[in-house]
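Continuing from the previous page...

OK, I double-checked the sequence for Tyrosinase copper-binding domain-containing protein against my notes and this is the correct one:
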Amino acid sequence: MKFLHLTTLAGVALAVPAELSSRQTCSSPKLRKSWSKATAAEKTAYINAALCLVTKPSKLRVSTHTSLYDDFSYVHAALTRQIHSYAVFLPWHRYFVQVYENALRECGYTGTAMYWDWVADSAAPSRAAVWDPVLGFGGNGVNSGDNGPRKRVTDGPFKNLRPTYWNSDVQPHWLSRDWVPGDASSGRIEISGHEYTPAIMASINSETKYDDFRQRLENGPHAAVHGGVGDPLFFLHHTQVDRLWWLWQQQNPSARTMAYEGTRPLPDGLAGPPATLNDPLLMAGLASDGVVRDYMDVKGGKLCYTY
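Thanks. Re-ran it with the corrected sequence; updated structure tokens here:
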């Protein structure tokens, strides 16, 4: 990585990467809040905008009778082999959350993406505010008899939601959710809370290299929440993942804001050459394709928010 010049902080000379020092910083970053700390009005506005996406026509038109809400599920599933298990995992999902936030604004939303701080709730995830039946996303699914083998969510504002896709296949179904149960005898907490405790996150945050941090976060807490919830509470979950990456970056901003390493996937999903900041962030028609370097800094490039 090239270095442009030295600046001083408390009398210590610090090398500033050229990629970082030459970037413009946004002047009024918007704050992304934890769901548990948002007001009732903020939660209601977010929920209403998310429901509004179901009424918006699909931009992709991959299948008939699909909505803008369905587009997000389809794109994530269609690109899964190119956006997971590689360096691009974190910046791609950072951009994806931003595209979702922009879509919410098309529905009149004036707030920002919010996150579920599952680290703070790891001791009792099933009691988290995100599951509230009025100001949340409803609770666990039940065997309703009308959703095939899947447990249907029967409370909350999304109880009548019928997603079109299961992965990238057209399989209309009621919104489903299946929490992994706990087991007191083995110390296993419901929704796999034992896999994303503060102690585990502290250990992951001790990693000093980007790809070591990325692999442990992706394969550990990120995967545990997806598997533990079942449906995943996708965007609140991935905004939390983005926040945790941001917190890691903030430990050493001059070195970590543009820190990026690992492997780039080939179009078939197999491992390719070393990753670079010029690698693409594919959006499959949902939005314009991006470039990694524009999504490394939440207050620079194409972004302007903070946590």
